[in-house]
Amino acid sequence: MKFCIFGAGGTGGTLAAYLAMAGNDVTLIARGQHLKAIQERGLVLHTNHRGTITVDNIKAVTADEYRDTPEVLFVCVKYYNIEDAIAFAREKAGQDTLIVPILNVFGTGGVMQEQLSQHTCLDGCIYVMSEIEAPGVIYQSNKILRVIFGYRLKQEEKLADKARQLEQVLGDAEIKGHFSNNIIRDALQKFAFVSPAGAAGAYFDATCENFQHSGEERDTFTGLIKEVVALGKAMGVEFGQDLVEVGLKMMDNLKPDSTMSMQRDIQRGRQSEFSGLVTRVVKLGKEYGVSVPLYEKIAAWGAAKGIK
Question: Which fold has domain 2-181?
Answer without folding.
Answer: Rossmann fold (3.40.50)
